[in-house]
Amino acid sequence: MKRWGLASTGVALALTLAVLAVMGARDPGPTDDVGDLASPLPMAPRATTGSSAAAAPPPTVPMPANPPAWMRRVQPGEKPPQFVLFSFDGAASKPHWDRILPLSREVGAHVTGLLSGVYLVADQDAVAYTGPGHQPGYSSIGFGGSRADVELRIDYLNDAIAAGHEIGTHYNGHYCHGDEPSVGRWNTEQWNRELDQFFAFVERARGEGFKLDPATVRGGRTPCLEGDWGQAFPAMRGHGLVYDTSHVSLGVVWPSVRDGLWEFPMPEVRVPALDRQVVMMDYNLWFALNGAREEPARADDFKQVVLDTYRSVYQAAFNGNRAPVVVGNHFNEWAGGAFSRSVEEFMREVCARPETVCATYTEVIQWMQLQDPGLLAQLRRMPPAMND
Ligand SMILES: [Zn+2]
Hints:
Layout: H1 5-22, E1 82-90, H2 94-107, E2 112-115, H3 147-162, E3 166-169, H4 188-206, E4 219-220, H5 229-238, E5 243-244, E6 248-250, E7 256-258, E8 261-263, E9 266-271, E10 276-279, H6 282-290, H7 299-319, E11 325-330, H8 334-350, E12 356-358, H9 361-370, H10 373-381
Parallel strand pairs: 1-2, 1-11, 1-12, 2-3, 4-5, 5-8, 6-9
Antiparallel strand pairs: 7-8, 9-10
Helix pairs in contact: 2-3, 2-8, 4-5, 7-8
The structure holds zinc ion (ZN).
Zinc ion is lined by residues 89, 170, 174, 223, 330.
């Protein structure tokens, strides 16, 4: 159903980049363009050319009207809070929101739901969507069910928004490698059409009571972490997005501005029980565990392996660079629910810890806006947090 070929290419590339960064060979500036690899090493900060976004100021978001206590400038000698960003692709499943909403309220967490726009479109209205390069009415992940299902979905998404959770985008048709033309082949114009349709579905749902202010949709994760970023980013920026969370980093690193967007990469981490590196996302972990086959009998096992991974990654970041830990999952019951259970258990134990804040992407950007840019630059120069 989901293919990750391009994602693993991205992993290899990210690994190369990250290894170079660890060696101190690269300029730790805000742009991590692949082009840096072609420069002689070691290198001075490169002069900004017309094509470089290095000189552009970071994109900003409005500050909250009633900031929580942790939303303030770090004092001299003080460490940043340890942020944990729980984010859920698809974000349409009622049984999952039914568990996440009370749990997050209990532990003071805000999460980010990355909504697939097609889940706002009833099956009978499927032709309203034409995936760029695809037939009208076709999406890789289906549509929103009956009109009553969509109405109900709008209700519980409204509950999530009212509780302070963030809604971003997982785009619409979810065309991964093999479902061609997949998003990795799209050009800017195709990304524009995809995002136009996402916002049109939001707008239509608003007519049916959806309380999502489109201005608060500020970022997203691409299907299967795929995309030609040089093509995709201009469309994202053009639609007012200020962050992306689809790239992969080796270890946990601070967000940086890439091509005019805040990039919150998905960390590739060590899974202690397997003694190997995996992108810390449910599907990737499942694939590493057993090739992503349904084996409900091993659910408890898998849950523990993933939970131990989360714990050690959190510890490495907490004791290291304090970079935000991005935990990306789907609202799925893969492997007998092992991944949902591990993420929920981790949320329960980690969000209430001292110096720890379970926040949305926007909240972390708001926090970064309050900090001395020198401090942020210093944090970004620290070695990635590695759980070994
Ligand atoms: Zn997805």
